[in-house]
Amino acid sequence: MKELLLVNQLEKSFTLHHAKEKIISGCKGVSFVVYPKEFVGITGKSGAGKSTILKSIYRTYVPSGGQIMYDSTQFGPIDLVQATEREILALRKQEIGYVSQFLNAMPRITALEFVVEALLEMGVAVHQAEREAKEMLQHFKLPESLWDSFPRTFSGGEKLRLNLAQAMVKKPRILLLDEPTASLDQQSKEAVKEVLIQLKHEGTSMLGIFHDLDFMTSVVDRQYQLSAGLIEMTDKLEGNQITHQVGS
Q1: Residue 32 domain-assigned?
Q2: Cα 41 to Cα 19: distance, rounded to the nearest angstrom
Q3: Which of 19, 56, 129, 171 is deepest in the core (most CB within 10 A)?
Q4: What's the whole-number average pLDDT of the chain?
């Protein structure tokens, strides 16, 4: 099966200009694949570089080296490390979704508008966008009384549920998840799991990082462990439990 996403020797470093140009390694020598309609999980201690990997794929961070080959419907095979800003923006609008632990909404946009806008960017008609946005907000049990409110007033859990609704309503081709269940209660976690499973059945591939290992193992097909520049894979497909190093 052809890879949807192929990460090869990914490297990201940061230069601390105020500390005599000290260089900090975010991740180095990271290689793995994600296949179509597959859910891959990444675990590791805080500071191991998990979020750096996701942000490099989404191009919030510009990688320092390596390749991130993505099989795009718009551009064909494209290296996200070398892609232009215009190409990255087009991919974010149509194909690549990202769920962060932190809400990034404009100050004067309501919760409903935040989700509707994601669909309008994809060319969905206004009435259909509003209907689908409301259905997704209802699914994540964000009270209707909050739909016309500004998200900056929300609790941490409400902001995360809004982030999930905004990313998942687009049904992206690949969805990047950065701690998608952080600060959620058990009922909300079940709502997240239901949508993740539905998206996967509809064809969305996913790559997520988790601290909640019980939740992760209930939804992923394969999992990688990131530690000290190495990424190890545990293969759960067809019941296999195989661990090997993928990277250096």
Answers
A1: no
A2: 34
A3: 56
A4: 86
Measure CA 162 to chain center. Answer: 14
Burial class (CB in 10 A: 0-12, 13-18, 19+), 215: buried
Residue 139 CB neighbour total at 10 angstroms:
18
pLDDT digits (tens, 9 = 90+) for 117-165: 999 999 999 999 999 999 999 988 899 999 999 988 888 888 888 988 9
Count how many domains the chain has.
Answer: 1
> Which residues contact residue 4 at a Cβ distance below 8 angstroms, ignoring those fewer than 6 apart?
34, 35, 36, 38, 70, 71, 173, 174, 205
- Strands across the sheet containing 242-245: 96-99, 174-178, 205-209, 39-43, 222-227, 230-235, 242-245
Contacts of 41 (CB under 8 A, 6+ apart): 207, 208, 209, 210, 216, 217, 219, 220, 222, 223, 224
Residue 51: name the closest of 35, 27, 24 by CA.
27
**Neighbour tally for 220: CB within 10 Å:** 23
3 state DSSP class of 203: coil
CATH of the domain at 185: 3.40.50.300
Domain interval for residue 171: 41-60+93-245
Dist CA 86 CA 50 (whole Å): 26
- Say whether 97 sits in a helix, a strand or coil: strand
pLDDT score, position 233: 62
**Candidate ranges 5-19, 134-148, 186-200; pick with highest mean pLDDT:** 134-148
Does 151 reside within a domain? yes
- Give tens-digit pLDDT for 223-248: 988 875 556 665 554 433 333 334 33
